[in-house]
Amino acid sequence: MSKWLDHYRSNKQATWIKCKTSDGVDRYMYKMSDWTDLVKLSTQSGIFLQSLSIQFRSHEEILDVTDCDRIYLITSVMGSMAGPSKNYLTYGKINGNSVEKQMWLIPELIIEKTYSDTIENCFAEAIINVKETPKNRKE
Questions:
Q1: What is the Cα–Cα distance from 23 to 46, expressed in whole angstroms?
Q2: Tens digit of each residue's pLDDT (9 = 90 or more) over 39-71
Q3: Residue 76 and residue 61: Cα distance in Å, rounded?
């Protein structure tokens, strides 16, 4: 808990991504570049995602990482001619070529849109494994 508080106190206005990886490390990030660095590390070292949540101030939402092959997470902005732009964290559960996406309005952490998509419409640098692949699995 104290590790989290130290990170949180460094930027109380951020929407945080909190996760645990298979190497036993709890990770706290608010920049998308930190997430993409974790994806690279995962690819290089074979670690995978075990849990994931997003948090703004005291409002935390746990994102389900079960029953899927991989997880997709990226920030996005949607503009409107008649109103202000909205910021999102787009979260998706990937199974094969199919992605079930949720667009979380940030910083409010409210799901504003859900839809099905294909993996071709995802940025590869934002996709992380959640299961050990057969080549990494210990028998």
A1: 9
A2: 999 999 999 999 999 999 999 999 999 999 999
A3: 18
- Band of pLDDT at residue 80, cut at 50, 70 and 90: confident
* Angstrom distance (rounded) from CA 99 to CA 111: 16
Return the pLDDT at 82: 87
Mean pLDDT computed over 85-103: 97
User: Which has the closest alpha carbon to 105: 125, 82, 76?
Assistant: 76
Q: Tokens 């409010």 belong to which residue?
A: 108
- The residues facing 16 across adjacent strands are 55
pLDDT at residue 1 in the model: 64
The answer to whether 54 and 63 are in contact (CB under 8 A) is yes
Q: Collect all residues with Cβ–Cβ distance below 8 Å to 24 and sequence separation of at least 6.
A: none
> Would you call 38 exposed, middle or buried from its count of C-beta atoms within 10 A (0-12, 13-18, 19+)?
buried
Burial class of residue 139 (count of CB atoms within 10 Å of its CB; 0-12, 13-18, 19+): exposed
